[in-house]
Amino acid sequence: MAKEEIFGPLLSVIRVKDLKEAIDVVSQSEYGNAASIFTRSGSAARQFTQNVTAGMVGINVGVPAPVAFFPFSGWKDSFFGDLHALGKDAVHFYTETKVVTCRWPD
Length: 106
Description:
Blueprint: H1 19-28, E1 31-32, E2 34-37, H2 42-51, E3 56-59, E4 75-76, E5 99-102
Parallel strand pairs: 2-3, 3-5
Antiparallel strand pairs: 1-4
């Protein structure tokens, strides 16, 4: 399941020993639509956000799909065409944007 890009009501959970391995798992995939991390550590969230190779990043959210005014911004083989589907990417399509969605526990 984690070797193909599947769209639909499906959750793929890959357990890893540490943050570096988590970032490596994402980096080694040919796809880069979205990735999420669940953590209480601001440092881990920042490191994941800055180093993961995915267009949409979730911090403590299961599906980091943004609302319509943010770009739907997959990377690598998760992106087809010249422009991302929504948002300012119609102007900035030469850059790789990253959307981060966070929710912190009370």
